[in-house]
Specification:
By secondary structure, the chain is of the alpha/beta class. The protein has 2 domains: about 1-175 and about 275-340, 3-Layer(aba) Sandwich (Rossmann fold); about 180-265, 434 Repressor (Amino-terminal Domain), CATH 1.10.260.160. The chain is about 40% helix and about 15% strand. The protein is built from 11 helices and 8 strands. Strands 1-2-4-3-5-6-7-8 form an 8-stranded mixed beta sheet, sandwiched between helices. The radius of gyration is 19 Å and the shape is globular.
């Protein structure tokens, strides 16, 4: 993983890591949640970085469960003087329910509750909480980062002063770009992404999974997204062409003038008709076959039309994961400059 970084990330200090366990809420029910807290060793923090990770269906691959990439993120940010928070998300880590994939209300609540819990934990260990908060997310986490940014500006949170946000490979337009594109099967992960969404939304909105999937897949998919199967196992169990999982009515709902409860729900959870006040930077890759550049650009343009402080940045001819590896070093340098 380190070999994929385009440049070295200098590290200024050591890092102490902890698992934080806290309560959050999903659909009106209290849920246990967990996340990684990394503190800069031997110095006061220069701010708080909240890292929101990409698509992961497996509880044991969440940040607080010692996922390999989490060590890299902790070293990159906490090793440069920031308090680093990395929520596991509801349904992952210690949480035993299903993961409400791309469901904005629970995503936002679980992240903000992690920030609250991390402040209490930091101060309880004798550290000083620096209220300057930077939010950065990749893929699903980029969707989450923009949603958290919006929430922190619309409903200010005590002890949180949002400085900037970064989204990497952000699927902001779900209903009209990202999901129709995924249905075309460009990526080997397309079927996994779509099955994850169908499973999560059918449970969140209390709709039969057979509204979306053929009966055989409506039986198979809940067993795959039990939090125990990893990406490789899920992809191996699903067809290469994602359209073969869906029934004809569900496919027809993604024609330009058509609609359905599922497509309406995708629109309801992907808010782009708002105006960020703190800077929001959105990076995309020209060769990203998981999240097409247009899914980022179209959403960013809508925010700009509302007067938002947003910019969309072409990271170059790179694929989905490569954009992350190239953007994280930039974000470290950028946040350090702002956190002086």
């Amino acid at each position: 993983m380190l070999a994929r970084l385009p440049a070295h990330i200098p590290v200024d200090n050591g890092v102490d890591t902890y698992r934080v366990t806290y309560w959050t809420e999903h659909l009106g029910h209290a849920e246990i949640a967990s996340g990684l807290l990394a503190l800069p060793a031997g110095r006061e923090a220069r701010g708080v970085v909240t890292w929101l990770g990409g698509t992961n269906p497996t509880r044991m691959e969440a940040p607080a469960e010692s996922a390999p990439y989490a060590a890299l993120i902790a070293a990159a940010f906490a090793g440069n003087g920031f308090t680093l928070l990395a929520p596991d998300y509801v349904g992952l880590g210690l949480s035993r329910t299903y993961h409400p994939y791309f469901y904005e209300p629970t995503t936002v609540t679980s992240v903000i509750d992690m920030i609250r819990a991390a402040r209490v934990a930091t101060e309880g260990m004798g550290g000083r909480w620096d209220s300057r908060v930077y939010v950065i997310g990749f893929s699903e986490g980029a969707f989450a980062a923009t949603a958290v940014h919006r929430s922190l500006e619309s409903t200010p949170e005590p002890f949180v002063d949002l400085v900037e946000s970064v989204g990497i490979g952000a699927p902001l337009d779900l209903a009209d770009v990202a999901v129709p594109y995924a249905l075309e099967g460009h990526s080997t992960a397309s079927s996994m992404y779509l099955a994850y969404l169908a499973h999560a939304y059918s449970r969140v909105y209390a709709k039969p999974l057979t509204d979306l999937l053929r009966p055989d897949f409506a039986t198979l998919v809940p067993a795959l997204f039990d939090g125990e199967h990893d990406v490789d196992a899920i992809e191996a169990a699903l067809p290469r062409d994602p359209r073969t999982m869906f029934n004809q009515d569900a496919l027809a709902a993604f024609r330009p003038e058509a609609s359905s409860w599922f497509r309406d729900a995708l629109r309801a959870n992907a808010h782009t008709d708002w105006s960020p006040r703190a800077p929001l930077r959105l990076y995309y890759g020209d060769s990203d076959i998981d999240v097409p550049a247009e899914a980022t650009i179209r959403g960013a343009r809508r925010m700009r039309e509302h007067g938002g402080n947003v910019e969309w940045i072409d990271a170059g001819p790179y694929g989905h994961n490569e954009v992350m590896f190239r953007t994280v070093p930039r974000a470290v340098a950028w946040f350090k400059e702002l956190g002086r």
